[in-house]
Amino acid sequence: MHKPALTDKNIHPLLKNRWSPRSFDSRPVEADKLQRIFEAARWAPSSFNEQPWRFMLGIKGDETWDKIYDSLLEWNRQWAVTAPVLVMAIGSTHYDKTGKESDIYKYDVGQAIAHLTFQVMEEGLMMHQMGGFSKKKAIAHFDIPEQYHPLTVSAMGYQADPELLPEEFAKMEYNERRRNALNEQVFSGRFGQAAPVVE
Ligand SMILES: Cc1cc2nc3c(=O)[nH]c(=O)nc-3n(C[C@H](O)[C@H](O)[C@H](O)COP(=O)(O)O)c2cc1C
């Protein structure tokens, strides 16, 4: 199933075709694909090149997958159960070099995930990010040190027929994709004033 963004201008096909399905095939993801996916994240830029991202990689059948799955909220568990890969993104709240608190680590981790997502698409896979999970459970399951915060879980894999999902979720696969207009997002002069190029 394809659900390309109805863009006003042409953009890169991988960005246009990315969306967040909930129907995943249980077919395993090849190791070399996973290696390239994490290599893409590795080369994301970050503040002071500190690379504050860490990932827990769960492959269905292993203990890490079970623990990540267990930390998901019930809503997400219902559909993520077939995902062959679950990835928990974790961020370092302090700079390693100076020990100072970072006010930007979530931005860096998000950017690494954006890189990773692009490679996921390039590999013919799909991904669905989730904020709906118990951070408390994640910390306990993986003995995450105090300096690190779990931020998101992503389900990854080959897409399956939406009709295989529970009815409620199957319907949602067909929901229209919407975005706010560019003139509500890109400003010049003062905050809130649309930049002429996007008016
Ligand atoms: C940080 C983040 C957290 C999200 N949390 C959830 C979640 O817990 N459950 C869920 O079903 N979708 C979740 N989503 C998916 C968003 O709802 C989805 O990306 C958004 O509706 C846009 O749809 P699209 O990705 O198909 O363009 C999350 C996405 C992001 C980026």
Outline of this structure?
The chain has helices at 13-17, 31-42, 63-71, 74-80, 105-122, 135-142, 167-172, and strands at residues 53-59, 85-92, 126-130, 148-157.
Give the assembly state of these chains: single chain
Helix content: 25-40%
Shape summary: globular
* CA-CA gap between termini: 33 Å
**Number of individual domains:** 1
Ions and ligands: flavin mononucleotide
Backbone structural class: alpha+beta
Spans where pLDDT lies below 50 across 5 or more residues: none
Which topology does CATH recognise? NADH Oxidase
Would you report the number of β strands? 4
Provide the spatial order of strands within the biggest beta sheet: 1-2-4-3
Under CATH, the homologous superfamily reads NADH Oxidase
What is the topology?
Blueprint: H1 13-17, H2 31-42, E1 53-59, H3 63-71, H4 74-80, E2 85-92, H5 105-122, E3 126-130, H6 135-142, E4 148-157, H7 167-172
Antiparallel strand pairs: 1-2, 2-4, 3-4
Helix pairs in contact: 2-5, 3-6
Bound molecules: flavin mononucleotide.
Flavin mononucleotide (FMN) is lined by residues 19-20, 76, 129-132, 152, 177.
Outline the structure in words.
With 199 residues, this protein is of the alpha+beta class. It has one domain: NADH Oxidase (3-Layer(aba) Sandwich). Helix content is 33%, strand content 15%. Helix 2 packs antiparallel against helix 5 and helix 3 runs antiparallel to helix 6. The chain is globular and about 55 Å long.
